[in-house]
Hints:
single chain, alpha+beta, 7-stranded mixed beta sheet, 20 helices, globular
Amino acid sequence: MKKLVDKESSFVSIEPNLDLEEFNQRSQDALLMDNKEFASKRNEYYPYNPVKLKIKNEEVTLQMNYCTDPLCKWYGTEQAIMDGLTRDKKKFTLNGSGKKKNIKCHDFPIDSREAPMVGNTSIIYSNWGIATEIKRLIDISSFADEVYLFHKDTCEFKNVKPNKKNIVDKEKKIGKKNGGLFYADEQECNSIKYRCIKCGKYCTVTSNDYDYHLKEDDKKEILRIMDNIITRKAVRGAVATHKIGTQQYYDKIKLFYEKCLQFLEKHETQTFKKKQFDELWLTTDKLDFTPNFQRDNGHGGEYYKINKAKFKTHVINTIDNKSNYVFRSDVAYDFDCDPFEVLEEIKAMFEYKLDPYQRKHGKYNFKNYEGKDNSENETSEAEEELIEEDDDDEDDNPEVDKLENITNSIVKGIVYHRGLYVNPTYTSIAHFWLLNRMIKYNKLNICCDNDNSLKNAITRIFKDRILNKNVNVFATKLNKKIKLKDARKMARSLEYTAKKEIAVINEMNELPKGFRVSPYDYYIEQMMKEIEKGIYHYDPLTGLPKKVIQREHIKPSVEGSRKIFCLNDISYLNKEEIAKLYYKVSDVPLSGYHTELRFNINLLEKGKYSSRKEGLQYQHAPKNIRYVHYLLTIYRVYHNFCKFVGKEENIEGVDTKLTPAMRLGIANVKYELEDILNC
């Protein structure tokens, strides 16, 4: 009886961060000031001004702009006026100009012994934009309240809704004696008309809104389509096999997506509310894919004038290392927004005169529509970090009209896709904010790449738990200069050498079987030797950690040599405890899941070179990113609840295969696709 949430039925609301007085002041200043003066006047207000988010009956306050270095004295604290600072009385000051704008921590007196000051600079983001991104991620995976009126206001049964038990069969008169209340007639337009027997009220409902409207033939067809998707059959092939239209094929995917949301609400959301995890090891990373080019009607001439761009779209995934359970999968793309409506709001609120962190729509990445061809060699890691920092910023040239740049970007984007790209940092912050609300835990360890957007998001969301030493954040840095073939040879050689050394140690000490040195003990001992060299640079005055040192991981990896480092302070642990934490840092489970997505969902496959070697070709790339989100959710449910993952586990003397949900402890059985459809 429910539909997916739309703009009118959303139960998430944001209190506007722009009152009438400020709006009138903007109107006056826009006529008298240039862009730089207009934005500078609001620099002290918007970075630290909180936004109120209301989710149903719960009110939440969001303010994400503060120091993001867990080793800094001012980490996680709000802006305040302090006595004794050298240059200014405020903790943070705005630094840089244009797209280099950030907040910088101030120094503290020399005689202070509280904590070191690392002089960290943190990128500023729009609190309003973060709130809208959280709202978007909640809306696309939620159902609206019931919208159908099955009775008149005077009917004594106005709170009763149709179900399988209270519908009367007119011909056989089945159900009337059992308190049947509704007649149901199937219509030609794929809908059902209900009539209340008591008050005579008619109500027509489309078949997509009720699970029991699906006939057995429809269910079998949907299940066959889902099997085709999971087994990587292309859209054209599936359409030809089932002899249905393309739109009908996508409608079936949307219907199964809705069933997956209902299944998750029952078996995931409700279970997580009751379950408390003692310790979790999570790995998070971004998966990139390139959508296809789409020429919309009426844009033929414009399409050929614009350089063909390779739009790179990001997906943020988080997985549990032990159970391989995928907690969330979010696409950094707003496919529900109307770009021209966004443009009108930008004009009405004079946001084109503001910096991105001061805007309501600061999360949108207009730079993606520049028409650059990214099909050549991949950028270096340093270039990627530079691009990541400057993702959401405008041109530094004051002579360039920002409004014209935004307008041109939106027009170019409409030629290719409906919707707007989102800066992945905003999606990452919303991703972890929702994840932190979803699960209850005592201890949490998070591993990510050396990616600024992920590190910024994690240190902002988990700041309270990091300060309480309940959350540890680890980053890995892979040496991409070594070719994969050489890296695998090196890993096999190191593993062979380690086995020989272990055998020599066991032979020299003549230890019995139960006391022999295992590979785990060997690597832990080697890691302790590495840690003895130091994991932090220490402040000479306070003796507390000031800067992280990147250390080589001892255990060989088929991906090549990698360095690991902890972003927060774990110096209170002994060397063995630190070595065990470092040893567990691994992105293998998530890399395996990404490989599954690439292999099993043809819309996410990597580009292939044509016979002419004219750059990467994306034959199966999606034209509508909305359906990528649908398929990611469907495959996440299939992976977690319907697929055996990992080795067999011995439970009560019986070797048993387990799904990720069973390993995590939120399911007892393996589910089938039919169970999801009948949920």
